[in-house]
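Schema walk-through. Below, the input block comes first and the output block second. Nothing else is stored per chain. Lengths vary across the set, and this one has 280 residues.
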Amino acid sequence: MENTLGHQAIVRRRVALVLKYLVLSVLALIIILPFILGLWTSFLPTTAIAKGSLSGVMSWQNYHEAFTQTPILRYLFNSLVISLIQMFAHLFFASIAAYAFVFLEFKYRDQLFYVVLATMMLPFEAEVIPNFHTVRAMHLLDHYAVMVIPFLTSAFGIFMLRQAFKQIPWDLKEAADVDGLSHWQFYRKVALPYSRISLLTLAAYSFLGSWNQYLWPMLTTFSNRLRPVQDGLRQLHSEETATNWGLVQASAAIVVIPTLIVLFWGQHYFKSGLNEGSVK
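--- output ---
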């Protein structure tokens, strides 16, 4: 009797496991199918895409045209420069602010931190108009600075690094004070290495957020010399390339490659860093 019950329990667990992985596989297929279709059509001729056909002579012609007939390389370079600057700025300013909220004692410290957190509830769209008027008054439109200055730091980054710094044992800070380490030395030699996973997570998060920006570049950049990739893809829908869907699909595939590299490289750090920042 006990053997029968045990066997039934094992069967039920196996059936539940199979169903779980079946559902996960279906959901994964639904998510990845648009990307597969986009990549597939990027190798097809425009005539086949226009007819809605998924068959045809596959070639690298669309990619060759994307590199030779469009400024896609300039768009990639602009996005890379902007994303790297924003990423390093986030790491520096967010870590400095987080360190101050954890290790420095000053009046209204916690209240100021709550004000910083409150800014996370404001959607970016609500900040677009005042930010645009500000950068226009500073004569920064159509310049690299207009893509960097409004995004030098983030409340999310400050919050995540503050949670990571709070996990540093206070005894370690007291020992550093006894040894005569300044705040800057403790920040550089102890706090940053101790929170390496959270820093890498924030770096990947900041890079992807900057790379995928669309609304702000569309409003503030007007020339191919400074236009990033997301706005550049929109620009490809011009009179010259509006009907060349093969070229557009190839350009979109090229643009998404850096995103996939960062995601595959940083997925472990995303999980570890967010878990590290969620506990104290």
